[in-house]
Design brief:
Structural class: alpha/beta
Distance between the termini: 43 Å
Radius of gyration: 19 Å
Mean pLDDT: 93
Number of helices: 7
Strand content: 35-45%
Helix content: 25-40%
Strand order of the largest sheet: 3-2-1-4-5-11-10
Order of helices and strands: HHEHEHEEHEHEEEEHEEEE
Number of strands: 13
Shape: globular
């Protein structure tokens, strides 16, 4: 089953593409304080483009990357001034550096192998200007454990969406099964997608950040304050680890 196929991507873009607006006050404050001269912004896993739209409206040269071509189509319509490409962030090479790089709304949790997470962080760092900022948020093990064990039903005028969530505590893998029935004139068309995420523990996230050459501050991803002992989501503000001078020589 594909992820963010045509029908689900359309529903997501219209109803659920809200995380960019929710994150705006925090992101704006960080950028204003730490990168006031920033002009370029790369949004990894940009989804349907809500953050790209806001970024462009605030005067940044915006670029978005997403693996789903359907999401890319929505992002291009939502943020017509942005450059939006369909690409895997683990193999990204744009030959350009950006003042701000973001990857939001647990997109990185879709990378269920820690080596892939490290690769994604390394690719983000390689596209970051020397004084740039990389900001990302992720669901934690505790977050998926506490929230991904339920079933819900969403009703819209032209769509019914059944959401079945489960979490395996041994593997830290959470699964969301979306089954939708979308109205097509007089008939309903069924679609189904399974979304698989890994709930990472803080030490696992931070090990990958450290090994990729990034230093960071972390926050609770919901309150934007100090992280709690069992925060369900963590938010990281990262910069390149500065080189160390040893005996007159620079060690990266």
């Amino acid at each position: 089953m594909s992820v963010y196929g045509k029908d689900f991507a359309a529903f997501y873009s219209e109803k659920w593409d809200l995380w960019g607006a929710r994150m705006l006050p925090f992101l704006s404050a960080v950028v204003a304080k730490e990168a006031p001269q920033a002009k370029t912004w790369l949004d990894l896993c940009c989804g349907a483009g809500s953050l790209l739209k806001i970024v462009g409206e605030n005067g940044f040269q915006a670029t978005g990357i997403d693996l789903s071509e359907h999401q890319v189509e929505h992002a291009r319509r939502k943020a017509p001034g942005a450059r939006v490409l369909a690409h895997d962030i683990r193999a990204l090479e744009l030959n350009q550096r950006f003042d701000i790089v973001t990857c939001m709304f647990d997109s990185l949790n879709y990378l269920v192998d820690e080596e892939d997470l490290f690769t994604a962080f390394s690719r983000a760092k390689s596209h970051l200007s020397d004084d740039g900022i990389f900001i990302c948020d992720m669901n934690t093990y505790e977050g998926l454990k506490n929230q991904w064990c339920a079933m819900s039903v969403t009703h819209e005028p032209d769509l019914t969406l059944v959401i079945e969530a489960s979490f395996d505590a041994d593997t830290a893998i959470g699964r969301l099964l979306f089954t939708g029935f979308s109205r097509k004139r007089k008939h309903y068309q069924r679609f189904q997608e399974e979304h698989v995420e890994r709930g990472y523990r803080p030490e696992e996230i931070e090990r990958s950040l450290h090994h990729s050459g990034l230093i960071f501050r972390k926050y609770d991803g919901y309150s934007f304050g100090r992280p709690k002992k069992r925060s369900g989501r963590l938010l990281y503000v990262c910069k390149k680890n500065p080189p160390i001078s040893i005996g007159g020589k620079i060690k990266a």
